C-alpha cells in the first residue's frame, strides 16, 4: 500500500470554476478574486479580506502596514516555517525568537511576557497557530492582552489554521492582522495564494495599495469604474502580490468544501489519537481547543528518544510506502538565523524536545480507512522493534 503525505482533492467544481475564468479571457485579478475575498471576510467575521499570491506576501504586507521598519524588533516562534521570520528581515527589522510551550508547540503567553520584559522596544509579535489549533490568544492572560498592554501589534500566521476557531470566534477575527496560506499542501489550496484579514480600515487600505505596486486603486477598479480608465497614481514603491483569478477560482471551489475537508481530517485525527494515546514511546500534542475548532492541518507525533530514533522511524515509514514529514527543523538551528543572531539551542528547550522526536503523519480528506489503519499499524510496528 502507498500513502502519500498529501494529495490535492480536486472535484468537478474546481475544474468548472477554472474553466469559466480561462474562457472569460481575464486571467489576472478581477471578479473571482473579489468574490473569494467576500466569502472569506464573511467566514472570518472580519471587515476586510485581501487576496494575495502567498501567505508570505501577506505577512510581509501585514508587518509593513503596521509600520515595522529597519531596526525594529518582532517576536516570532522558533518552531515555524522560515516565512514567518524572513518577512521581518525583508523590512530590515530583527526577529526575537521564542521557545514554544512544551505540550502544545504553541506560543506560551508567559514566555511572551518574559520576552517583552527583557526586550522593551518590541514593535510586533507573529503568532503561529501551529498544526491548526489556535494559540492562547484571548482572555485576561492571553497573547493579545499581553501585547496590548505593551503596545505590541499582533500578526497571526494562520497558514495552518483554516478553518479554525477558539471559544472567542473564528481565527482571523482575533489580533490586528491574520494571514492564511493556500499553498499546494495546505488545508485548502489555490496552488499558490494567501489571504489577509483585518478589522482595521487603515491597515486594509495600506495593504490594498502595497499588494499592487503602490498604485492607489487596483486594476479591476481601473477597468470597470466610470472614472478615466487610464489614470492612476503611485504612492509608494509597492509589491506584486495580487492573486490572479485563475487561482481565486480554485479557491472558491475549495472554500465550498473546506468544512467537509476539515471534518474528514478530524475523523482521521480521532483515529490516530485513540490508537496512539496509550502507546509507550509516543507523545501527542495536547489539544487545547475542541475538536471542531481545530483545522487538523498537521498530525505530529513525538517519538521518545529512549524508545526509537526519529530519523530511523522516518526511514522505516518511507520504506513502508508512507509519506511523512518534519514540521519543523526549528529556526534557531537554521544557519542564517543561528549565525546572524548567535542563537543557542539551550535557550529553546521545549522546541528542542519537540524537534528531536517529531514527525508528521499523512492527514488529508481523500485518505481511505485502510490507509489510515495502515499508517497506524506501521507506526506502532516501527517504534516497537
Ligand atoms: C506554508 C506556511 C507559510 C507560507 O505560506 P505560503 O503561502 O507558501 O507563502 C507561512 N507560515 C507557515 C507556518 C506555513 O506553514
How much of the sequence lies in strands comes to: 5-15%
Q: First CA to last CA: what distance?
A: 21 Å
Radius of gyration: 21 Å
Provide a count of the helices. 13
The helix fraction, in percent, is 25-40%
Structural class: alpha/beta
CATH topology name of the largest domain: Aspartate Aminotransferase, domain 2
Taken together, the total number of domains comes to 2
Q: Give the helices and strands as they follow along the chain.
A: HHEHEHEHEHEEEEEHHHEEHHHEH
The fourth-level CATH homologous superfamily of the largest domain is Type I PLP-dependent aspartate aminotransferase-like (Major domain)
Question: Quick check: average pLDDT?
Answer: 96
Known CATH architecture of the largest domain: 3-Layer(aba) Sandwich
Task: Summarize this entry quickly.
The chain is of the alpha/beta class and 385 residues long.
Molecular structure report:
- This protein has 385 residues and is α/β, with parallel strands linked by helices.
- It contains 13 helices and twelve strands.
- The model has no long low-confidence stretch (mean pLDDT 96).
- Bound molecules: pyridoxal-5'-phosphate (PLP).
- Pyridoxal-5'-phosphate binds next to helix 3 and helix 4.
Amino acid at each position: 500500500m502507498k500513502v502519500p503525505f498529501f494529495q490535492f482533492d480536486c472535484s468537478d467544481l474546481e475544474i468548472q470554476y477554472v474553466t469559466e475564468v480561462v474562457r472569460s479571457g481575464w486571467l489576472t485579478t478581477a471578479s473571482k478574486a473579489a468574490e473569494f475575498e467576500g466569502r472569506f471576510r464573511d467566514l472570518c467575521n472580519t471587515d476586510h479580506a485581501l487576496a494575495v499570491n502567498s501567505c508570505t506576501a501577506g505577512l510581509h504586507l501585514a508587518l509593513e502596514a503596521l509600520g515595522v521598519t529597519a531596526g525594529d524588533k518582532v517576536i516570532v516562534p522558533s518552531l515555524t516555517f522560515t516565512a514567518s521570520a524572513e518577512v521581518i528581515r525583508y523590512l530590515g527589522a530583527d526577529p526575537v525568537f521564542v521557545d514554544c510551550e512544551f505540550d502544545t508547540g504553541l506560543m506560551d503567553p508567559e514566555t511572551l511576557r518574559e520576552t517583552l520584559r527583557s526586550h522593551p522596544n518590541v514593535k510586533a509579535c507573529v503568532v503561529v497557530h501551529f498544526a491548526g489549533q489556535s494559540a492562547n490568544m484571548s482572555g485576561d492572560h492571553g497573547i493579545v492582552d499581553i501585547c496590548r498592554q505593551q503596545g505590541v501589534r499582533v500578526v497571526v500566521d494562520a497558514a495552518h489554521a483554516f478553518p479554525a476557531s477558539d471559544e472567542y470566534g473564528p481565527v482571523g477575527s482575533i489580533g490586528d492582522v491574520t494571514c492564511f496560506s493556500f499553498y499546494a499542501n495546505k488545508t485548502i489550496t489555490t496552488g499558490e495564494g494567501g489571504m489577509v484579514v483585518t478589522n482595521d480600515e487603515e491597515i486594509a487600505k495600506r495593504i490594498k495599495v502595497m499588494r499592487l505596486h503602490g498604485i492607489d486603486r487596483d486594476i479591476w477598479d481601473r477597468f470597470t469604474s466610470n472614472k478615466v480608465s487610464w489614470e492612476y497614481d503611485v504612492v509608494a514603491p509597492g509589491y506584486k502580490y495580487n492573486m490572479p483569478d485563475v487561482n481565486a477560482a480554485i479557491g472558491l471551489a475549495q472554500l465550498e468544501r473546506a468544512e467537509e475537508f476539515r471534518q474528514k481530517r478530524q475523523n482521521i485525527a480521532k483515529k490516530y489519537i485513540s490508537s496512539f494515546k496509550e502507546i509507550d514511546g509516543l507523545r501527542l500534542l495536547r489539544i487545547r481547543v475542541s475538536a471542531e475548532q481545530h483545522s487538523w492541518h498537521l498530525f505530529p507525533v513525538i517519538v521518545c528518544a529512549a524508545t526509537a530514533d526519529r530519523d530511523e522511524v522516518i526511514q522505516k515509514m518511507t520504506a513502508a510506502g508512507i509519506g511523512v514529514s518534519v514540521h519543523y527543523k526549528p529556526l534557531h538551528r537554521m544557519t542564517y538565523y543561528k549565525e546572524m543572531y548567535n542563537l543557542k539551542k539551550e535557550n529553546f528547550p521545549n522546541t528542542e524536545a519537540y524537534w528531536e522526536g517529531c514527525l508528521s503523519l499523512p492527514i488529508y480528506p481523500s485518505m481511505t480507512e485502510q490507509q489510515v489503519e495502515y499508517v497506524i499499524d506501521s507506526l506502532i510496528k516501527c517504534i516497537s522493534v
